[in-house]
Write a structure and sequence with these properties.
Order of helices and strands of chain B: HEEEHHEHHEEHEHHEH
Strand order of the largest sheet of chain A: 2-3-1-4
Number of helices of chain A: 3
Largest interface: A-B, 27 and 25 residues
Number of helices of chain B: 9
Radius of gyration of chain B: 18 Å
Oligomer: heterodimer
Distance between the termini of chain A: 22 Å
Strand order of the largest sheet of chain B: 1-2-4-3-5-8-6-7
Number of strands of chain B: 8
Strand content of chain B: 15-25%
Helix content of chain B: 25-40%
Largest sheet of chain A: 4 strands, antiparallel
Shape of chain B: globular
Distance between the termini of chain B: 49 Å
Helix content of chain A: 40-55%
Structural class of chain A: alpha+beta
Number of strands of chain A: 4
Shape of chain A: elongated
Radius of gyration of chain A: 15 Å
Chain lengths: 93, 310
């Protein structure tokens, strides 16, 4: 089973079209392995992106360098997955 | 112990085996209203199952509902299960549902992408696509909601097999999509189409692949407004509505555009709850509230279709 320990989901709010374009560029940075849960569409819609733990620093630095505000929506994806599996097991019991 | 669908917990997530067992029991225990139809086999040879809710008649006008085309959106399968059970529980009690089912049939595909769903349980919880192998690429799978023959390969889909939006090698290349296409065209009398996704609290209608409005835009927009209104009444969950291309983005090859272009006027897609905390990984405690608030919106759309034959 693939693990997502330390992966975070960031909720990003672009202020304008310029920041949105910066976020769209993230899609092309394949080495960062980001997984868009909500794609960059318009400045009034939030963007949610899962970032592997190994690339968190780089992605956060990228956002900061462009002045793009974000918050951490999910602090550790694996914790959520573990809870989900435990809940399923408990329900089965 | 004898297995029974009555012991099933709708407030929990389930594996594909558990869901398929439930479907078997549910259909056999409610055979007066429900039948199980296999419309094909997935790439990995799993049955593609559809529940048919019908009170009789032959080739009645019908409604198509699918959940789980994006396999990681577990809340949609869970909503499908609850909805199936709700249809049986409320038939004969809820006057709107009862008169709907006295006139129309409802087809519900709960696990639209079974291979992907099984994979989310066994290997990769984040998996969204089908599991077909892409020749010449190390990346598997196709986005089954970019694979329909509606401006296939256009804006809002990717030709990169490693992308989550990969449209696939050709329209309907995915057997999961082709099986629905064949079934729906073969039926020939589907009048409403509802694809359920998560998350971001949206109710959308065609077009996705172009910015142009459909000839039915005003009616679809009014109906979406009404459906969102009743949805919000339940728990205050606020939805945005509109055409796909105006509400979020241009997306080619989607199911509801295909449905609309093939004569199904009332074609809608839901994006279920967004708590702002869990993304599509909604805790199981959210399943029933999510399904409960979606239910009156579904009924609103279906009832409108019933009252506006075309």
């Amino acid at each position: 089973l693939k693990l997502f320990s330390g992966d975070q989901v960031l909720r990003i709010k672009a202020k304008d079209e310029t920041q949105l374009a910066v976020l769209k560029d993230l899609v092309h940075f394949k080495h960062l392995q980001v997984d868009f849960w909500r794609s960059p569409l318009s400045p009034n819609l939030p963007v949610d992106v899962r970032v592997p733990s190994c690339n968190l620093q780089a992605v956060k630095a990228y956002l900061k360098s462009h002045g793009i505000p974000y918050s951490v929506m999910i602090d550790d994806v694996q914790v959520l997955i573990d809870k989900e599996r435990e809940a399923m097991a408990a329900s089965r019991r | 112990l004898e297995r029974s669908s009555s012991t099933f917990s709708f407030s929990s997530y389930h594996t594909i085996e558990e869901i398929y067992d439930w479907i078997d029991n549910f259909a056999s225990e409610n055979s007066n209203l429900v039948s199980k139809i296999q419309i094909g086999q997935s790439y990995e040879q799993r049955p593609l199952l559809v529940l048919k809710f019908s009170t009789g008649g032959s080739n009645r006008s019908a409604v198509w509902i699918d959940t789980g085309i994006h396999s990681r959106e577990w809340i949609t399968h869970a909503t499908g299960l609850w909805t199936a059970n709700q249809i049986v529980s409320e038939y004969g009690k809820d006057p709107v549902l009862t008169s709907i089912l006295d006139t129309l049939d409802i087809f519900l595909e709960i696990v639209t992408n079974p291979d992907g769903f099984a994979y989310t349980h066994s290997e990769d919880r984040m998996w969204r696509k089908t599991r077909s192998i892409n020749p010449g690429s190390s990346c598997s799978g196709v986005d089954a909601n970019r694979n329909w023959d509606s401006n296939f390969g256009g804006t809002g889909s990717s030709d990169d097999a490693c992308s989550d939006d990969y449209h696939g090698p050709s329209p309907h290349s995915e057997v999961e999509v082709k099986s629905i296409v064949d079934f729906v065209l073969g039926h020939g009398n589907i009048k409403a189409w509802i694809s359920i996704h998560s998350f971001s609290q949206l109710l959308m209608f065609p077009y996705g692949y172009k910015l142009e409005l459909t000839p039915d835009h005003q009616e679809l927009n009014d109906l979406a407004r009404e459906a969102v209104k009743v949805l919000t009444t339940k728990y205050g969950t606020e939805y945005t509505y509109g055409s796909i291309s105006s509400t979020i983005y241009q997306a080619s090859g989607t199911s509801i555009d295909w449905a609309y272009d093939n004569g199904i006027k009332y074609s809608f897609t839901f994006e279920l709850r967004d708590t702002g905390e869990h993304g599509f990984m909604l805790p199981a405690s959210e399943i029933i509230p999510t399904a409960e608030e979606t239910w009156p919106a579904l009924l609103t759309i279906i009832d409108h279709a019933r009252h506006h034959p075309y």
